[in-house]
Amino acid sequence: MASSMGARNSVGQLQFTLEVPFPSQREASIAVQSLIPDCEPRKGGITKTLSVSANILSVKWTAEEARILRVSVGSFLDHLALVMETMDAFGRIVQQ
């Protein structure tokens, strides 16, 4: 089950963090490698950072406006769902 947290930082920017567990570190790494190329189209107002620790994919957004944050998170979740569906379609990864 994924966990999330949202708040404003000391400069008044909105922050949102999402953590998504995967069955293995390898699957989390594959997911992050598939999602990293999708940089934010807007050049200012929002940043997104992706990382993997063990089997957890973590994403942190910082935005100036709630609307920009909402659009970015929604788009990311659509891409994440597609990556997860693709991984499911090809079956469980066998460790070598």
Automatic annotation (TrEMBL):
Family: Belongs to the CTAG/PCC1 family.
GO annotation (BP), single: tRNA processing
Recorded coiled-coil stretches: none
Protein name: L antigen family member 3
Keyword Transport tagged: no
Localization terms from the record: Cytoplasm; Nucleus
Keywords: Cytoplasm, Nucleus, tRNA processing
Free-text function comment from the UniProt entry: Component of the EKC/KEOPS complex that is required for the formation of a threonylcarbamoyl group on adenosine at position 37 (t(6)A37) in tRNAs that read codons beginning with adenine. The complex is probably involved in the transfer of the threonylcarbamoyl moiety of threonylcarbamoyl-AMP (TC-AMP) to the N6 group of A37. LAGE3 functions as a dimerization module for the complex.
Cellular component terms per the entry's GO annotation: cytoplasm; EKC/KEOPS complex; nucleus
Pfam families for the chain: Pcc1
InterPro entries cross-referenced by the UniProt entry: CTAG/Pcc1
